[in-house]
Amino acid sequence: MTNPDTAAATVRLADLETPCLILDADRMDRNIARLRRRLVSMGVSLRPHLKTAKSADVARRVMTSAAGPATVSTLKEAAYFAAAGVKDMIYAVGIAPDKLAKVQRLRQDGVDIAVVLDTVEQAEAVAAASRAAGHAIPALIEIDCDGHRSGVLPNDAHRLLTIGRALVQGGELRGVLTHAGASYGARTEQALVDAASQERCAVVQAAQILRDAGLPCPVVSLGSTPTAHFATDLSGVTEVRAGVFVFFDLVMMGIGVCKVDDIALSVLATVIGHQREKGWVLVDAGWMAMSQDRGTSKQPVSQGYGLVCDISGKPYADIILADANQEHGIVTVRPGSGATLPDLKIGDRVRILPNHACATGALHAGYKVVRGTSDVVEASWPRFGGW
Fold first, then answer.
1. At what angle do helices 157-167 and 189-212 cross, to 10 degrees?
2. DSSP letter string over 202-270?
3. This prediction's pTM
4. How far from chain centre, in Å, is Cα 57?
5. What number is the average pLDDT over the span 139-146?
6. How does pLDDT run across 260-301, given as a tens digit for each residue?
């Protein structure tokens, strides 16, 4: 016989206010285990990037210990995770001098947080702040492995050494770091393997230049979710950073890093209307719930604002969130597919897989946690945003 108290306490997807963020913990656990197995077999450690999750509950599941290591993208993240017990972090965004005081406060509280830089000016600021505080701030020199964004070219020995020598005049040169951001544009398995090889070669080369000049370089850090899954050689590397692998998303699926059944994050939405003559179903999840990230529009298969699934998380064939306003989403058949729009009635629930897990997650205050095809919400995990 069912206990009435237990039954009353059970929350199901149909009970939730929409739109809201759903996390399939079974898929998340599989994704984490997959990358861990891979990196263990290659003899390197994982320093997960927590910017995607922004949640202590997720962090505890992805880090190798309660204290880290971890990567963060804001100092607000650093303070939040420090309060949750994380003590080993890299703040992996180029350091602005006016943020060094916050870094010093975290270090004084027992957090081993390192910063990232790629200019002499930054190195001099870190060294000066270190001397003034009487405590060396550790920094890693960012290496440009693919022209994607920032960093020092790996063969620019003069710039590397000038930065390194400026940094050690008070600060600590902890190593080098790179991110193969251009891997997100890869379209074949060989292109992903090549991006991973280029990433490794760049950061190992830069580390050797520093060491040959007598400068320390204990940490050789690289990482992106695509290259972490396609690297064939990580010799000379000490750690791998990746973040979106925890949840995956449609961009990662389009690159070939995951399958649709690996995507752990979705947005639960309710059907609120029809435009039958246009072949539209309206839902209450617009770009304020999904984000305006249209990353798959540059891929061979565009997913619009997201791929539409039934309430259990099973995708409908070629049904996408084709357009979005602030609070309205337009569900329709993918152009040219010949698929049939599902018979969705007013009040029915759907789940929409996001293009970019980081962007979609940032619009929500927490995760409603389910497992597999179950509609039982087993937990609510808070997440945070801002700077």
1. 60
2. HHHHHHHHHHHTT----EEEE--HHHHHH-S--TT--EE---GGGT--HHHHHHTSS-GGG--EEEEEE
3. 0.94
4. 15
5. 97
6. 999 999 999 999 999 999 999 999 999 999 999 999 999 999
Q: Residues for the chain: how many in total?
A: 387
Cα–chain center distance at 382: 17
Tokens of 242: 């990746």
Tally of CA atoms within 13 A in the half-sphere of 109 that contains its CB: 19
Pick 260-382's CATH classification: 3.40.50.1000, 3.40.190.10, 3.90.226.10, 2.40.37.20. Answer: 2.40.37.20
Distance CA 128, CA 116 (A): 16
First to last CA, the chain: 50
Mean pLDDT rounded to a whole number for the chain: 96
CA dist., res. 114 & res. 231, Å (int): 25
Tokens standing for 383? 């997440």
Q: How many CB atoms lie within 10 A of CB 105?
A: 15
Closest-CA residue to 71 (of 95, 54, 57): 54
pLDDT on residue 109: 96
CATH architecture assignment, domain 49-242: Alpha-Beta Barrel (3.20)
Q: Work out the percent of the chain whose per-residue pLDDT is above 90.
A: 96
Q: Quick one: which of 56, 132, 68, 80 has its CA closest to 382? A: 56
Q: Tell me the DSSP string of 62-117.
A: HSSSTT--EEESSHHHHHHHHHTT--EEEEEEEPPGGGHHHHHHHHHTT-EEEEEE
pLDDT per residue as tens digits for the range 161-218: 999 999 999 999 999 999 999 999 998 999 999 999 999 999 999 999 999 999 999 9
